[in-house]
Fold this sequence. Notes:
By secondary structure, the protein is of the alpha+beta class. Among the domains are: about 40 residues; about 200 residues, no CATH class. The chain is built from 13 helices and 6 strands.
Amino acid sequence: MEIQRFTDEQAFSDTGKWVSKRKEECSAVIKQHIKIRNKLKKIAQITQDPRDKNLFNRAQNHLKKLHAEASEKRQREVMENLNPTDGSVWQQAKKISKTYFKMPPLLTDKTIVYRNQEKAEAIADILEQQFQTNDLSHPPTELKVNRTLKKFLKKKDDTEITPCLSSELLEHINKLKKGKSPWPDKITNQMIQRMPIKFLIRLTQIINGILKLKYFPNNWKLATIVPIIKPEKNPQDPNSYRTISLLSALSKIAEAIILNRIEDAIDDQLIPHQFGFRRNLSTVQQLLRLTEFVREGMDEGWDTGAVFLDITKAFDRVWTDGLLYKLIKLRVPGSIVRLMATYLRGRRFAVRTCNCRWSSSRIQGWTEVVQHLR
């Protein structure tokens, strides 16, 4: 309630700004020819003389030519002012090549759906199945994990999570990318970056409350999913859509703060060959390591083989209880494990097609890759 009240009162009042419609600027020559064209049009309408009509048509065609030349000149100036370092080249290319897609009726197992709400429901049903945890088929492991986790969460824990400072929060706010689609609360990254200092203080208090209580707000666990058609796929098949999850911008900041605490707790316990999703490391460095193995084998005359494992829906079907169990085995502080338990459990999603949203049931095995600010 505190978060909702604060955002409702402050978000738009502190950052709202009217954007005036930009009118096309005409040169003095074009304005003069517009006056001449209008005068000839009036004369032709009064006299109904074919010769006057011909003069009007010639003036109209000449004016169209002047507009085309002016438009071409403006476009040339825009192209000449593009800067490859500020993203303007990509924005212009996207503007020119962008195609608008309208979702056709979808074919489900039972029927054909036409309305936007029915389309959202059909895609939500597919996603709900994807977010189900895989069948582990090993009851002893499940029993061991469930017992360990239940016992751990019942045990009292007095450890505290390092509080968040306003300077740390400001650092993450400055890293927010502009132009990202907002969550249903309509709070954009630009709005957050323009907020006054009192917002920074209040948000710091809210995040520190999350760290102190070891509880992640339920309102921030909702993901709005937007379906995007995959290239060269049947647009009438609900499985042909790639999903983009829109999360609250405020929750992303809180997640980044929590991520810093998790990294500090487990970084020295991970194997040195783990390169994915680690600070200052990337999978490119792992490829370099693999290349060195291959080169060494070639120098020694060895045959080098590789096994690549690709897990379908790896992040969609993560066993969250098993993940929490591994955090316990890595001796992650109990306060962080408890916070992660509330973060991973009870997550929900809603599919949005056009202006219709369909809320689905809770997610069983979905996890996020919290690397958006890195």
